[in-house]
Structures are given as C-alpha cells and as structure tokens.
Amino acid sequence: MKKILWGGATSSSQYEGGYHLDYKGLDTQDCRPYFPRTTHSTTQTRLLNKQIVNQAKAYQGVGNYPFRQGSDGYHHFQEDIELLKELGIDIYRFSISWARIFPNGDEKYPNEIALQYYDQMIKQLKEANIKIFITINHYAIPLYLIEKYDGWKNRQMIDYYFRFAKVLLDRWKDDVDYWLPFNEINAGYFSPYNGVGLMKDNDEDYNQSEIFQSLHHQFVASAKVIEYGHQHVKGQFGCMVASFCYYALTPKPEDNFKLIQDENYYQWFCMDVLSRGYYPTYMRRFFLEHHIDINVTQSDEELLLQHTSDFISFSYYSSSVVAAKAADQTAGNLVSTIKNPYLNATKWGWQIDPIGIRVTLNQFYNRYQKPIIIAENGLGSQDVLELDKTVHDLYRISYLQEHFQQIQEAQNDGVDIIAYCLWGIIDIVSAGSCEMEKRYGVVYVDANNEGEGSYCRYKKDSFYWYQKFIENYHQ
C-alpha cells in the first residue's frame, strides 16, 4: 500500500499580510471586516455589499481588516518553512495572491517583485524536500476586477485568470507537484462574494443566474488551465470542493430525499462537472424550477469534457444533518446545519465527527474513482499561550489522532489517498469568522483579533505530536 503524504496548508490572504507592500493591489479578502462574534453565524463577514467594500477601500490601514495583516507571513515565511522542515511534513499547500502578481488583475505584465517572493518560498521548500501543492486562486480576487468587470459573471474573467495562471505555470513548471485551479469552487453557490466575486448593491438576494454563470466561467477557466498544464507542466491538476458529509435527521423518506438534493446542489455539482466533464442531469430540473438561464457554448462543453482533473480534493471539518423541515441549527464551514445530538461541537458550533471523514473519502472515491488529496482538515479552537510560551492543545491532538485513524481506515477500505493537508498549520486568520482567535495550527502566532501582538511563532504540543506521528508513519 502506498504511503500517504502528510502535510499542511495555508492561503495567501489569511497568512501573508503585507497588503500594501511591493505594489500589491487590494483584493476581496482585504475588504472583509472583523465583527466581534455574538453567535455561531458568520454571514455578515462574507455577504458583503458595495457600501461595506467602499468603506474598506477608504480605510488606509489594517485596523478592522485582519486579512491585511494575516499572520505576517510575508516577513516570516523563511522562519515558517524552517518550522515545517523541523515538523517533517511531506507536502505543503499554499496559494498565490492574484493581486500581488497582477495588482488590478487586468495588467498585461506581472509584478516581478511578487514573483520573486514566491520564488524564494518554492526554492526553500524544495531544499527542505517538501512537495509543493499550489492553489492558484483561494477566494481572494483583485478588487479592481470586481468593480470594473462585475467579477466572474463576466466572461472576460476567464482570460484575466488564465493570464495569471499561465505566468505561474510557466515559471514553476518543473517545481510544483500538484496544482489546484480554485479553492472550494462550490463556495461560489453558497458564498458568492468569496467564491465568484459577486457584490450586492445592498442586502438583496443574489441573482441565481449570475451565480451559476459565474461558476460556469470558473469551470471553463479550470479546464483551460488543465489543458495548458498537461501540455507544458509536469505536475498533476485537481479540483476541490468543500464537503459536508450529510446525514438525514430521521429515516423519513422526505428527510432522505432532502439529503440527496443537498448533496447534489452543494457538494456534487461542481465536482461532477470538473471531474466527469459535463453538467449532471439533476441540474436540469433545478435550473428550470429556479428560473436559471446560463450561456454554455459548444466549445465550452468540448473543453470541459476533454480536460478533467487528474485528482480530486476536498475540505472536511465536520458533518452535517439535513431534514425536510426546519430544526435547531448550528454552524459549519461557511454554511449552517442542523445539530447532531450524537456529536460534540467546538466553541464555534462545528460538530466533531472523525468517522465522517472516512465516510466522505469512501463517497468521493466510489463516485469518481480518482486519487484524493484531503486539501483541508483541522480543528479551530481558542488556544492559550502560557507564560512559559507553551500551548497545551490536547483537544487538537485528540481531534487529529481520531481523524488520522479514520483516514487510514479509509485507505484500508480501498480509497486511493495521495495526501492529507492540515489546515492552517501555522495559525492564520479564520476565513469563516475573520478572527485570529479561532486557531487551527500546530504553530502558535502571537497575535489577537485586533492585529496586536509580536507575531512570534511558538510550537504547540500538537506540533510535537504531529512530528512524532509523521516520523513513526514513515518508519
């Protein structure tokens, strides 16, 4: 049986900071404000309108915009990669800031200073014998493209994105092992500002046709990247969705049919297109009943069919419960769900379900028969830095231990697993709640929700546990 690659992951917008350095332009994540949390809901942090974005543009500092500071990785990346080397990980997933490479997004030529920053990261990772997994676009879209072109609902975005992606592919064609065109591409459906850059005028509902037209343009862009990559690049290319591992609340037929519908629309649709190469039949009725009309050309259909993903990937944090009728809700990864009485939950309401990752791995592999990378998994928690600069996160160790056991059980089930990436392996700003307090890493970053702190790095107890796990696994 082949060995799983054990690693970690971050994203540029949550990790780097340096939002105004070396000609970087503003992006959509730079404009997301932090709101002190009063409930599990994170809706107000991700459904932004023009007024909120204009306020962000007018503000010329970090202030209440934590993604502008991130974990200050722009100044700490060398130290951080040394920590990853000491940890002993096999693979590191990170994303490239589109607005750092093309500050507005529609320039003809890239920002060379920004490319050199990533050159240094890639060189140091290769010297550490850590495999490289690059996400080309992880939510953050140059704000100029949103304001001038209306985001991904405009077909011109395919060309601007491909220009960006081609620069990366050409420059690091021999260095990167795995490429991912879009992070959690299905987020465009349930989090349109993050996923496809749609910005509302006020608080009106999103136009569903615009959402699915935007997603279609991302599908085409992904296929174009895979087409070019297979011709010019040695690495493998994947697709990714946020996964939810749905359970029906009861054995009632109505609840179980609702499960099928939610799986189709939220979880399977995008991956069906990108992994199989065509629109699934179940979307015909959905489009008809929701009055969704999108433009799909014959050349689009041919491109999608001919250039599907080499591997599939997903994020998994917790499972979800569905029912035909409303019931008591709790939080999840960008979406809410019904509470599961058989599971414990984090302070943020996310239900902890290790067996769910085994279920998910089996479901995805049985459906697509393609190798899998677990692109994100981890526990967001409120860690405490003690006076002696230690962090005793036994709860995270327990979470990882239980999930790793289920991952290996899934491999014994016959699932072809390439790699596991621990999300936010170095503490980053949470994408869901826009706060540093919700920590995922095995490395603690000394900063609070307001961007105050030394930003020094400290190894948590989970660092040493994960280090020993990887060492023992490869013996």
| Unreliable stretches | none
The total number of structural domains is: 1
Our measurement of the CA-to-CA distance between the termini, rounded to an integer number of angstroms, reads 14 Å
Q: What Rg is obtained from the alpha carbons, in whole angstroms? A: 21 Å
In quaternary terms, these chains amount to single chain
The share of residues in extended strands comes to 5-15%
Structure characterization notes:
With 475 residues, this protein is an alpha/beta fold. The protein has a single domain, classed as Alpha-Beta Barrel (TIM Barrel). 41% of the residues lie in helices and 14% in strands. It is built from 16 helices and 14 strands. It has helices spanning 12-15, 50-58, 73-87, 98-101, 112-127, 143-149, 156-171, 187-190, 192-196, 208-232, 253-276, 282-289, 298-306, 354-368, 394-413, 461-473; strands at 5-9, 91-95, 131-137, 178-182, 236-242, 246-248, 311-315, 320-322, 329-331, 336-338, 372-377, 417-423, 443-445, 457-459. An 8-stranded parallel beta barrel has the order 1-2-3-4-5-7-11-12, surrounded by 4 helices. Strands 6-8 form a two-stranded parallel sheet. Strands 9-10 form a two-stranded antiparallel ribbon. The chain is globular, with a radius of gyration of 21 Å. The model has no long low-confidence stretch (mean pLDDT 95).
